[in-house]
């Protein structure tokens, strides 16, 4: 039994290491839109894409987050454009998408190669009895509807280049983990939404 478990574990590690070695050729000059770039995955992904010569449109929730990211990406091979965006707000999304469209038109590319939907909040934690419907709505508005809204606004730009949409979820979208009720419900919803995209 232990031999099977150890073998599976080593196989998973080996596959992961192999996949980490794979790269996409010719990313230089390709455009990508990333949400939630103030910190965390979005911030780090923006930097990595800039280092690889991509044109990066980083949506930040705050001006401070955008300024910090701009400082980190100066003198890199790629080009960074930040914009303030709240994925939980239609007007903010519309404005952000229009800004991206104006910039890509100005630099003459007319499409984006990738869209990374990354924005999300944890929300209140605890058993079901402790959490109100209002909290579920708040988490779903940002995490679920914000993600869907992001895809809705940017999908045409991705389709033009036959690019890719990447939506960050987690293991919480596949397993039930106790005491993060709204968060895990949103993760299941986003996994289902991802399955509808083809």
UniProtKB/TrEMBL annotation:
<dbReference type="GO" id="GO:0008202">
    <property type="term" value="P:steroid metabolic process"/>
</dbReference>
<dbReference type="Pfam" id="PF00106">
    <property type="entry name" value="adh_short"/>
</dbReference>
<dbReference type="InterPro" id="IPR036291">
    <property type="entry name" value="NAD(P)-bd_dom_sf"/>
</dbReference>
<dbReference type="GO" id="GO:0016491">
    <property type="term" value="F:oxidoreductase activity"/>
</dbReference>
<dbReference type="InterPro" id="IPR002347">
    <property type="entry name" value="SDR_fam"/>
</dbReference>
<feature type="signal peptide">
    <location>
        <begin position="1"/>
        <end position="17"/>
    </location>
</feature>
<keyword id="KW-0732">Signal</keyword>
<protein>
    <submittedName>
        <fullName>Estradiol 17-beta-dehydrogenase 2</fullName>
    </submittedName>
</protein>
